Amino acid sequence: MAGVSTKEIKNRIRSMESTKQITKAMEMVAASKLRRAQAQVAASRPYFEILHSTIEDITRDNRDFSSPYLKKREGGKILYIVIAGDRGLAGGYNSNVLKLVYSQIQGKEASVLPIGKKAVDSFQNRGVPILTQSYAEAASVGIGDCFSIAKQVCKAFLTGQYDEVYVAYTDFVSMLSQTPDFMQLLPLEKPESKEPEASHHCDPLYEHPAEEVFAAIVPEYLGGMLYGALCESRASEQAARRAAMDSATQNAEDMIADLSLKFNRARQAAITQEITEIVAGS
Q1: What DSSP character marks residue 68?
Q2: Closest CA to 257 of 249, 269, 245
Q3: Which residues contact 108 (CB under 8 A, 6 or more apart)?
């Protein structure tokens, strides 16, 4: 930083201190939102676990059971529901899940239903067919929207518009690890038959035929799976943003320390120069 005045160095230090305050505030906001997202995941999990066990009971205990939601079809028309964020400054959160989707749709007849502005913009720029852009703002997507998407997807699957449906999201592993992942929604996998664990085991009885109960539960179940993936992605986004802002804050502190050292050296050199000039003049 030769030739740079102490005034310029001081201005840079002030600039980095302002940046540090911003990144520290964003880190605290992300930590608060992360706790809220984790609470949503924990609160919604029991309801959807019961739905999942009910679906397993129906398909396992009815040997002659058949449903269009269980049939695998040839054709290869695939729909990917992609969950990303609305903003950046979250490390590799958005780019990682989008890279995973692009690696999967290459060479396939695929369409996407993006959730989040980053996903919409990316697929538009790449020319990927988009089913709808109604959910471009991920922050405003709630559980009701997830059920609406599930009903729309179920209808498209039953009419043969798509043969497979997947959701791409980011799995929240820990505060320091978030992994982009896929989950198949349709067709549903039929669980393997298991022997009853006790002699008093009995088949569940439903007021309506099992096929009707199953057809009514599937959209609710898929809506729950979508909402769970959305909560996982939100938690992952906030964890990634918190880590990115923490790293940015540490970098700002390192730059401030480096600039302060250079400022002191420049000031010391200026003082030495002045003393030398005074001595030489006398």
Answers
A1: G
A2: 249
A3: 76, 78
Q: Which two tokens stand for residue 225?
A: 């799976």
**Which tens digit of pLDDT belongs to each residue from 26-64?**
999 999 988 888 888 788 777 777 777 777 777 776 666
Residue 201 has pLDDT above 60, yes or no: no
Pairing of strands 164-174, 78-83: parallel
> Closest by alpha carbon to 108, among 77, 151, 69?
77
How many CA atoms are closer than 13 Å to the CA of 177, on its beta-carbon side?
A: 3
Domains assigned to the chain: 6-23+244-281 (1.10.287.80), 33-191+207-242 (3.40.1380.10)
Q: Which two tokens stand for residue 257?
A: 């320390």
Query: Is the per-residue pLDDT at 197 higher than 60?
Result: no
DSSP class of residue 74 equals S
Helix (H) or strand (E) holding 182: strand 177-186
CA atoms in the 13 A half-sphere facing the CB of 275: 6
Phi-psi region of 3 (alpha: psi -120 to 50; beta: other; left: phi over 0): left
Q: Cα–Cα distance between 135 and 271 in angstroms, integer? A: 62
Long-range contact pairs involving 181-185 (C-beta distance under 8 Å, separation at least 24): 181/100, 182/100, 182/104, 183/225, 183/229, 185/81, 185/153, 185/222, 185/225, 185/226
Q: The whole model's pTM is what?
A: 0.81
String of DSSP letters for 79-119: EEEEE--SS--STTHHHHHHHHHHHHHTTS-EEEEEESHHH
Would strands 78-83 and 110-115 be described as parallel, antiparallel, or unpaired?
parallel
